[in-house]
Amino acid sequence: MKSFRKIGLIIILVSVCITVLPQSKTGLFPGGLMIQPLTANYLEPKLGFLFNLSDENLRLEIGNSLDIYRAHLSYKEFYSIGADLFTYSRLRSEKKFKFPVETIDYLFGLNFGYLNSKDEYSYGARLRLSHISAHLVDGLYNNVEASWMENRNPFVYSKELIEFITFIYYKGLRIYGGITYNYHIEPGYLGNDNYQLGFDYFYGELLSEYITPFIAYDLRISNLIEYTTNHSFNAGVKFGRKDGQGFSIYFHYYNGKSIHGEFYDVNKSYMSLGFNLDL
User: Fold this and answer.
1) What does the domain layout of the chain look like in residue ranges?
2) Does 2-278 carry CATH code 2.40.230.10?
3) What percentage of the chain exceeds 70 in pLDDT?
4) Residues contacting residue 126 through CB under 8 Å, at least 6 positions apart
5) 265 φ, ψ to 5°?
6) Is 209 exposed, middle or buried (0-12, 13-18, 19+ CB in 10 A)?
7) Mapping DSSP to helix (H, G, I), strand (E, B) and coil, where does residue 137 land?
8) 73's torsion region: left (phi>0), alpha (psi -120 to 50) or beta?
9) In angstroms, rounded to a whole number, what is the distance separating the alpha carbons of residues 89 and 74?
10) Looking at residue 16, what is its pLDDT?
11) Which of 53-57, 143-147, 246-250 holds the top average pLDDT?
12) Per-residue pLDDT tens for 34-67?
């Protein structure tokens, strides 16, 4: 655990350095991301909110991924080395504009990307080495009764994982699939393998090249005590270049086990309205 804390500190220092060094498309600390986040995958860096339409919960996502180094393998082939550092939290909406934080998950690690750009399409892959830990927060604690709400008690939830995703991209449509292996996980009785399949499609331009409708779906098969399926669906509009930074407003539907480690065994089904600053 101490080694992961050191890695986290290094990633933070690298992120700070990136903001003050000159940037170019290749080389050390290039601008942007060679491989954009998978739109409907919840384990991606985001900066925004999701407001549930069926209950008082909302999700706060704060994070970033950065390409530390990017280079040519050939004229149309690129590779990258980057860092990930983000959190996703569950909050509860209360009166007087209060949002107690109930649970929070942390992810940090390194990523390695490969991209081959052909004339009409491109393909590539991404490998991530990550650490995830989850924690209950005081927003879920009842001070009057001196107990945790929802019959939950804090426990150790953490995992170190290797994730491999491969994809193909053609005219705004990206189809991907991959596998994740948890080489260390607590609680120890949880499974080690997870499988993933999905797509995202950015339609092109609507009225302007800076207004882009999109749709995305992610299917995750997770080995908990038994195999379970998680469905994540997004549909919305992005303001900004479709393959770069911008702002998105979207509808989100989720069905499956909770994305939060402290609630890994709880079934969730909800619809949300999302706002995100795209990387």
Assistant:
1) 2-278
2) yes
3) 91
4) 35, 111, 112, 113, 114, 163, 164, 165, 166, 167
5) -100, 5
6) exposed
7) coil
8) alpha
9) 41
10) 44
11) 246-250
12) 999 999 999 999 999 999 998 889 999 999 999 9
